Amino acid sequence: xxxxxxxxxxxxxxxxxxxxLLLSGDLLFRxxxxxxxxxxxxGIASYLRPGQDGTFGWILGILSVCVAYAAFPREHDERTIxxxxxxxxxxxxxxxxxxxxxxxxxxxxxxxLLVSDAAQSVWNSQSFEGAHWRADVALSHAVLQATFCAxxxxxxxxxxxxxxxxxxxxxxxLFVAWIVRDVLPPAAWIDPSALLVARYEGARLSIAWGPWIxxxxxxxVAALTAYAAWMGPAEAIGLGLRRTxxxxxxxxxxxxxxxxxxxxxxxxxxxxxxxxxxxAASAEAPAPAERPSRASQNHRTARYELTYPVSHEARAxxxxxxxxxxxxxxxxxxxAEPGPLLAADLTEESAEHRGIASWTHLRIGLAAEPDxxxxxxxxxxxTAHAFQHTISDQRQSDAGDATRFFAEGGAEHLADRVVPxxxxxxxxxxxxxxxxxxxxxxxxxxxxxxxxxERFDTTLVxxxxxxxxxxxxxVCGAGAVGDALRAMxxxxxxxxxxxxxxxxxxxxxxGCDLEAVDAAFAAQLADDALxxxxxxxxxxxxxxxxxxxxxxxxxxxxxxDRDVPASALxxxxxxxTVDAEDTRTFSFRGRLDPADPRRVAFRLTRAVxxxxxxxxxxxxxxxxxxxxxCETWRWATDR
Amino acid sequence: xxxxxxxxxxxxRHHGALLAMLLAFVGSIDLVLLFGxxxxxxxxxxxxxxxxxxxxxxxxxxxxxGHRLVVRxxxxxxxxxxxxLPVRRIEVLAVKLGLGLAVLGLVAxxxxxxxxxxxxxxxxxxxxxxxxxxxxxxxxVTTLWSALFAMGLLGRWRxxxxxxxxxxxxxxxxxxxxxxxxxxxxGLAGERLVLxxxxxxxEELGVSAAIAAGALALAITLALVDEGSVAESLAKPMSRxxxxxxxxxxxxxLIGFEVVExxxxxxxxxxxxxxxxxxxxxxVSVQHVDPSLRQDAExxxxxxxxxxxxAREAxxxxxxxxxxxxxxxxxxxAHARESVALxxxxxxxxxxxxxxxxxxxxxxxxxxxxxxxxxxxxxxxxAFEPNAWVRAGSAALLVHERPPAPGLAAxxxxxxxxxxxxxxxxxxxxxxFGAEVARxxxxxxxxxxxxxxxxxxxxxxxxxxxxxxxxxxxxMLRPTARARFEAAVDPAAFxxxxxxxxxxxxxxxRARGWIAIEPAEGRLRAVRWGVRFExxxxxxxxxxxxxxxxxxxxxxxxxxxxxxxxxxxxxxxxxxxTLAGGGYGAGDRALFVVxxxxxxxxxxxxxxxxxxx
Amino acid sequence: xxxxxxxxxxxxxxxxxxxALAGLDLRVxxxxxxxxxxxxxxxxxxxxxxLMGITKPDGGLVRLFGEAVRGTPVHLRQRxxxxxxxxxxxxxxxxxxxxxxxxxxxPTWDDAAFAHHARAQAxxxxxxxxxxxxxxxxxxxxxxxxGHRPPLLxxDEPSAGLxxxxxxxxxxxxxxxAERTGRTTFFSTHLVDEVELVADRxxxxxEGRMRYEGSVAELSARVRQAVGLVGxxxxxxxxxxxxxxxxxGVRRTVYEAEHPAAFGALGLALEPLPLxxxxxxxxxx
Lengths: 639, 613, 285
Fold this sequence. Notes:
The structure holds three protein chains of three kinds. Chain A is an alpha+beta fold. Chain A has four domains: 2-167 and 186-233, no CATH class; 297-391, Zincin-like; 394-537; 542-637, Immunoglobulin-like.
């Protein structure tokens, strides 16, 4: 038995090297490029970081399946298994030894990872970061990783019975699980790699026992299936597969089976997307007054090709009459060429947004906006976006996180100048000034959307963005917005810069200084805080969080620090982790407690919550024309 | 022509059934994409279904075709049978190439047709727009099929080649000015694939054509050179040794990505605002924007320039310090200063301060700025906790004649006896008493050191601690600041001198901060805090509760990371105030700090990291 | 010897350091059945692959149907029937379908001729080629080669892998076909009895060079052996001693002479050798 085990280990040694390289490869370069006594433990061991995206689970998973495929099918296909059967060993022990050898390789890899990360993190003797290493957390992670490897290894053993044809169904299952995890977070635990996403309560690792037990059971079943198959018909299955693969009918069956699985999985994902829980916009934006008709009509003006729902023809034609003037005004503001004809589709129904723009295409919810001024403001906003894309040759959207505040803020600024709406502007500026002062924000929080999203409300890119662009125009000239867009598209502009370096370079290209703009921006917000004090006063501070459970509902309550008008709306936003997309952020509306005017109650359906540990943000919309004031994102636990 | 007909018929008969099934499968995928586009909230045109199909599924179909038409032929050695027949090898190749192109073209055309039909019902389609989309799709199909056809002939080296090309493209994209997303076929399949309605992408078309031609040349060479024996030898399965070699090379390449720092051609940072005072030789620039602050800016720039020269001499740095940029930020409170991280080392140090404002402490800014400059010169090693106090002490000695802010140092003395421990665990001191108190304490220690062992001994000690570090792990091999300190000065004499320096009365009012965690509704906890003064607080004194959520690991929290709620101390009264924003529940871990500010920088009366039970 | 249908002069071919052919001279007359004899690895298959234009020679001249060629062009390959050493057909085709496919490449294809040969060799036309045995594949290859009535038939070790009965039937069919149609047939083999049975002329290939080329009769007349000699083996002008061995107590000395008359000068009692022995003596080291 020992000889067989050692023989198996010798045949799998390349995987030990590969595992070592993939998991502890940083040992080769980190000591020479970094000062280990300044490195924190979770800086070295990425799997420790709360809520990371589970990529580590994928690496371990793929390794486990590869080891399973290396341990079993080859011996049968190269017919050396018969030599083993001839030896005086009972057959079940052959299966057990081979399985054990594969598992040893994986667990050795996990052990090596634990030791290599610990070895690199013990040098840090600083008072705070030096105390991160904790044996209990390290061991619990190692045990979870080892269990995860065992589970996926069992899956691999079962899949390896079908040789190559086992890979496609398994890969598809994981693909569907990964999609469901992204689309329907509450069911995230279906994807095994989600098990390894680290979540903590206080300083202890919180383990979701339910999903682990379910996956462990599935693993055991897979292992037993593999055992039964390898002991019994594995030979026949291998031969049968080779024969079916050779015959045309077999090819068709396998081909159709695979294709069918792919189509079903995509359709499943498509359906699940639609029945998902209410997303942010629908819970926050008031329901659209009327729905547009299905039938649509086209209308051509000098600068636009409009498509509008027949049911709102009058409103559409009225807008069309002003369209070219709005276009010309924005073109003047930006000092730009007229540019290509814009396609404006006014049949949008989604409550997700009032309008979107992509290259020279606009899509606006005509039916959802009865107020003519706001409709033209949205139309001007989206037209400004189209100009931004063409003038910057799409460099603005390429720069990603660095330019979102400028895109939205710039569009709001231009729309304000072309279609003034004083009341809405005042409400927006009040929220901007209040959020800036109350949360002690800095301009660097706005420049990088990832930093903004980490703690603050993402709709600040509109209100704060507009104030920044306004400051830019005051400091660097009225045409500064157009100049910035042209600077982005200029030949030889450096690429792949961080947000701050991007704006230093872009502004310097036309003689404008980022620090001067930031100073003016901060000063403007300080002035707004004084000038708009009466508009800021009604915005309440909200302190609260999870209060408890009521069956399938999680109770969240917030205390207000002041009385608010009855028309005020309250909602709580929920997301799984910091980098959850806007479309994956859910909102739930709250109700003022009749008995206590300073208390708002929220009822969150627990089935929708991404996991037991999630983030929530309390928001209040006092002036419906402006933006909501929100507190910072906080971690919460469904307990 | 009969020969080509024969070959074509053979291919169709062999792969016909599977090609038909492929078309059916692709059709169903296209329907799913159309359904997705029609219900998707962010769909802007139905043609996006075709765009998604072209970006994701067309390459998959091309891969499957390449495998069926090319790889299998060599894999099963039926190529030898064709060699014997009176047909030229180029004809065999041409038939496979043409068949693949036709099938892929048909699939793409079906997808475009279906999307166009769906779009026609919702939006105005123009012929020019559809023509452009068709042109881009055709170019993508041709380039894709030529490349995968050539790859098919690479046999067992096919997959490693795909990986190698992928890694090279990613490396070029991140490390150089080359942009994969706008290059040739990738540019064609970019965001404008279905959105560009007027301009023809000549440049991308040209590059795609070049790639297609190059791939075909490679395919012909592989198939024809040395009577096709090259392609045949490549078709043999990969040996175990080759597989391991590929695995190791791949792993090393991935590690290579980690280590190699991509080069960016970003210009060095400079302040371009006209209202900026420049001292080019000292590499100092002070931006004041408001013309009335010009004098302050000039004075500050000259003072900083002098500091840099003296610091370089004192600490023995070979390279000149800086460059240093100071930006005026009038909206900041008088004592506040902000440091900004710049992209590259060459950009130097950038700080913001409200210089010229009433109550602004220029000397304090210069000392604090010197600390940032020393950090920059030592690539951050001076900020390493054991060294931090030496950096603060050195900066104080260079700028001040007497220990600055003695009152703050005495405030610390009020709570702790002066021990080296408070300097060694500098972050703990900062968190418990506040950054300015810690800096004042370090300055008092430096002056005490000079009083005991003399200035030269201090600078010899500082030069060793704050020297630019060797790379990586070798920096750790140097003896710690404490070992050098005990060698440089007699600890007992130092303690006595330090004690004497801290006897000055502290101007910080005597007060104790308190925090009470009280159960609120359900699992929520209310945080009440207050300050008990022994004597009534001076008018204008501001009290604040700063707090922040803590993760499982205790990071160092900068001031900017803390949320702050400030009130006038007089309004606090006996039962204090309750936290208004945010909110904590049972099981949360948080840092709570009670601050007191009497005009200058705030001091921390209380700082606790607590887990709320 | 009439105008040679196939001729090579100084044919050279190297695979890396291995010299497969080192200056081969070969002549096959029209209508002849030419046996190309040689040990395994002597260069037989290489020669055939060069004649078929599948492999390009490194030197020397090749003339087919009187035309000097460098890599056999398509129009000449259409006049050659070729049976490879190892059949690599499309397993998924039936024999009939394979014939239909091959027919598209030969203008002179004759369905009747193919059907005749297929029937004669009992080849099931409707069964998949993948299920055929080695022998059945060889027969199908011959039928396909003869299906377009080629003036020249080239067979590369056709009988390798056949049982003795199948081999004999195969050789008789080749012989009968050559006699009936006067087709020039060139086949390589390492079995001497095949040459005796079928070939008019024989070429012995040894280490990439032609060791002997001529009729079978002339070959057997060139070599004589003396049994039981005592003492030094005598020599004579025009005669070469090939070997002088003692096997189980019997000493045999083998001589070769360009012209049989030269043997008389030895003054020994000489006996003829079977063709197999001659071949062994000629090519053994």
